[in-house]
């Protein structure tokens, strides 16, 4: 509950707004949501994004420009005080912006749900989300430094927000208030020790986690009240928290053009976080959720909450975990939690008037440690996938150093780019038969494999399309150890040399015959001088073994476009010119249909086999029947090779 008030501070809103977000949306989600364990309320990422929107109005000029809107807000909103902050914007104005933002975010989510766009989060990979949330955690932690040190700093927005904030921190470090520093340090140490060393270590023995956040808030409030921290030491406190619910009011939609982009970003991010958590909880408890219905549930909840001075909601990781560990099986547990929040709003809120802001900041800092510690996973990501590492790092750096919005946008663009790059640079591999099984695998991963001297089996596990067609062709040439064009040139040169030598010998024969007409016994006969070179006869001069067949394993090919089909046709025709047959195996139904449409099946139907083993057997029979190599009967057709194991 205390964390919900703290996240409202991230959104640059009064702490009581965090309680509203933890109450009103829950009432609607209870009826429309499909998750049984998700606790709806505030989230650090959403709070930070809302705070970024508020920062755009942080000038006196913006506040003055919003005068008419302020008048409406003053008449409708009944929460907190009406003092103008150092930024020149009243709390009423900020709450009005939050209400409009919440309504529009909910509207966008409803439209997405109706259009069944719940799948959009599948395009946000785990490395992307991890890099983004870690970057957001840096933003969140940076935004709380001023409270931890007791500094009064201007709120920065736009690109390089973190860098500018730290610049202001160092420029004003001499103004540090030591009392908030001491309070913050004590709170952080206590929170960390209990949460990390007690709750996590003994979570199987504890019926519910120790509510250390509530303990810290209560002790901090009591100490601040009796120690008069605000009066004696200039410690900033929460201030008066109004009792009762806010009066319902209609959002004014002032300045929507200023934060239109954030509407889309918050709608997607809050949904992504919430539905991911809901999916994890559902899998853990063996039930399913409907992502499209979840979108609609979040949207309706946001629209309803926008009339009660709320900012956009998201599923709470900690709240959901507590609800699950406490034995909650349905959203009735969320209603019970909402009832506790209602008691605080109606009765207990005023007791936290003297709560120091630095205590709430300490709660936030400890809460985001898990997001920051995701940085320690980078070595593991590096070993798993270099592409995932680059996605992680690029998203994190752009989010941290430039802006949260740009981090998400560029991270997604870069992620899509790596997908294209992976398919473009993917290389075919040579396959060998594994022992006596009818399996063909990359021999470098197996100890005992069998290969055919005159047959090459080549596997490919990427699509064949316009972006990688040229690379695919060159890699097939490399693995086959024969480049058809080069071989044809060599044959032409050999034939030209043969023809030239033959002409010369014929000339010698004619001269000798003419000069020796009276001596017929001296006539030199040349019957078979330098015959024309046959492609198969030239193989031993250039390659270790003659090649008769290339078998392409297409089991891993997900799709082939028109360019890819032309590439395959070209490979077949190029090798046919040098008497090497190219066959295909393991062609999926989808690829078969494409081949039929593009006339590959009608033209090469006899070159397509159900399995690699079928193709190899047919090739072996053909090699034996046609006696391709003069020494084929003396040599072993199948040779066994031993490869090192590389695990």
From TrEMBL:
<feature type="transmembrane region" description="Helical">
    <location>
        <begin position="39"/>
        <end position="58"/>
    </location>
</feature>
<feature type="transmembrane region" description="Helical">
    <location>
        <begin position="6"/>
        <end position="32"/>
    </location>
</feature>
<dbReference type="Pfam" id="PF01740">
    <property type="entry name" value="STAS"/>
</dbReference>
<keyword id="KW-0472">Membrane</keyword>
<feature type="transmembrane region" description="Helical">
    <location>
        <begin position="95"/>
        <end position="115"/>
    </location>
</feature>
<feature type="transmembrane region" description="Helical">
    <location>
        <begin position="335"/>
        <end position="352"/>
    </location>
</feature>
<protein>
    <recommendedName>
        <fullName>STAS domain-containing protein</fullName>
    </recommendedName>
</protein>
<keyword id="KW-1133">Transmembrane helix</keyword>
<dbReference type="GO" id="GO:0016020">
    <property type="term" value="C:membrane"/>
</dbReference>
<feature type="transmembrane region" description="Helical">
    <location>
        <begin position="177"/>
        <end position="194"/>
    </location>
</feature>
<feature type="transmembrane region" description="Helical">
    <location>
        <begin position="258"/>
        <end position="283"/>
    </location>
</feature>
<dbReference type="GO" id="GO:0055085">
    <property type="term" value="P:transmembrane transport"/>
</dbReference>
<feature type="transmembrane region" description="Helical">
    <location>
        <begin position="206"/>
        <end position="226"/>
    </location>
</feature>
<feature type="transmembrane region" description="Helical">
    <location>
        <begin position="295"/>
        <end position="315"/>
    </location>
</feature>
<dbReference type="InterPro" id="IPR036513">
    <property type="entry name" value="STAS_dom_sf"/>
</dbReference>
<dbReference type="InterPro" id="IPR001902">
    <property type="entry name" value="SLC26A/SulP_fam"/>
</dbReference>
<keyword id="KW-0812">Transmembrane</keyword>
<feature type="transmembrane region" description="Helical">
    <location>
        <begin position="359"/>
        <end position="377"/>
    </location>
</feature>
<feature type="transmembrane region" description="Helical">
    <location>
        <begin position="389"/>
        <end position="421"/>
    </location>
</feature>
<feature type="domain" description="STAS">
    <location>
        <begin position="445"/>
        <end position="619"/>
    </location>
</feature>
<dbReference type="InterPro" id="IPR011547">
    <property type="entry name" value="SLC26A/SulP_dom"/>
</dbReference>
<dbReference type="InterPro" id="IPR002645">
    <property type="entry name" value="STAS_dom"/>
</dbReference>
<dbReference type="Pfam" id="PF00916">
    <property type="entry name" value="Sulfate_transp"/>
</dbReference>
<feature type="transmembrane region" description="Helical">
    <location>
        <begin position="127"/>
        <end position="145"/>
    </location>
</feature>
């Amino acid at each position: 509950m205390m964390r919900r008030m703290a996240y409202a501070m991230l959104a640059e809103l009064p702490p009581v707004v965090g309680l509203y977000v933890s109450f009103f949306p829950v009432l609607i989600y209870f009826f429309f949501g499909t998750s049984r364990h998700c606790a709806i309320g505030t989230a650090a990422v959403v709070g930070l994004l809302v705070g970024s929107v508020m920062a755009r109005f942080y000038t006196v000029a913006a506040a003055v420009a919003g005068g008419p809107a302020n008048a409406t807000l003053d008449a409708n909103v009944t929460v907190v005080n009406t003092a103008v902050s150092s930024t020149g914007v009243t709390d009423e104005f900020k709450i009005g912006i939050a209400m409009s933002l919440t309504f529009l975010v909910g509207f966008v989510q409803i439209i997405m749900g109706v259009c069944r766009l719940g799948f959009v989060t599948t395009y946000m990979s785990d490395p992307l989300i991890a890099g983004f949330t870690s970057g957001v955690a840096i933003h969140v932690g940076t935004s709380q430094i001023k409270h931890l040190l007791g500094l009064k700093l201007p709120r920065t927005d736009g690109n390089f927000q973190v860098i500018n904030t730290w610049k202001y921190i160092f420029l004003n470090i001499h103004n540090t208030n030591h009392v908030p520093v001491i309070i913050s340090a004590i709170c952080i140490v206590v929170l960390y020790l209990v949460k990390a060393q007690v709750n996590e270590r003994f979570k199987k023995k504890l019926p519910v986690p120790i509510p250390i956040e509530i303990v810290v808030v209560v002790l901090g409030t009591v100490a601040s009240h009796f120690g008069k921290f605000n009066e004696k030491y200039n410690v900033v406190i929460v201030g008066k928290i109004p009792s009762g619910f806010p009066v319902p009011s209609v959002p004014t939609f002032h300045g929507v053009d200023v934060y239109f982009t954030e509407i889309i970003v918050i709608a997607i991010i809050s949904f992504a976080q919430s539905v991911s958590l809901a999916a994890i909880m559902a899998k853990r408890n063996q039930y399913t959720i409907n992502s499209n219905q979840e979108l609609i549930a979040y949207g309706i909840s946001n629209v309803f909450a926008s009339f009660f001075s709320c900012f956009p909601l998201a599923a709470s990781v900690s709240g959901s975990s507590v609800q699950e560990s406490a034995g909650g099986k349905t959203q009735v547990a969320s209603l019970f939690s909402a009832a506790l929040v209602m008691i605080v709003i109606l009765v207990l809120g005023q007791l936290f008037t003297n709560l120091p802001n630095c205590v709430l900041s300490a709660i936030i800092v400890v809460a985001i440690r898990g997001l920051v510690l995701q940085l320690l996973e980078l070595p593991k990501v590096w070993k798993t996938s270099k592409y995932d590492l680059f996605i992680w790092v690029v998203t994190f750096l752009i989010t941290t150093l430039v802006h949260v919005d740009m981090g998400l946008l560029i991270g997604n663009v870069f992620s899509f780019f790596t997908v294209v790059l992976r398919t473009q640079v993917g290389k075919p591999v040579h396959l060998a038969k594994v022992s006596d099984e009818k399996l063909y695998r990359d021999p470098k991963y197996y100890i005992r494999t069998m290969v055919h001297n005159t047959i090459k089996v080549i596997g490919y596990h990427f699509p064949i399309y316009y972006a990688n067609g040229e690379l695919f062709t060159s890699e097939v040439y490399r693995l086959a150890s024969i480049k058809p064009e080069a071989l044809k040139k060599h044959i032409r040169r050999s034939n030209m040399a043969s023809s030239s030598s033959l002409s010369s010998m014929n000339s010698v024969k004619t001269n000798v015959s003419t000069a020796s007409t009276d001596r017929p016994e001296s006539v030199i006969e040349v019957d078979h001088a330098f015959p024309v070179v046959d492609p198969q006869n030239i193989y031993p001069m250039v390659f270790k073994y003659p090649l008769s067949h290339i078998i392409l394993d297409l089991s891993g090919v997900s799709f082939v476009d028109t360019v890819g089909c032309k590439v395959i046709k070209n490979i077949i025709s190029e090798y046919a010119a040098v008497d090497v047959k190219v066959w295909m195996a393991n062609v999926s139904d989808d690829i078969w249909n494409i081949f039929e449409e593009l006339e590959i099946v009608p033209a090469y139907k006899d070159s397509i086999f159900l399995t690699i083993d079928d193709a190899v057997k047919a090739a072996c029979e053909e090699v034996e029947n046609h006696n391709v190599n003069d020494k084929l009967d003396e040599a072993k057709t199948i040779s066994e090779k031993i490869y090192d194991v590389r695990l």
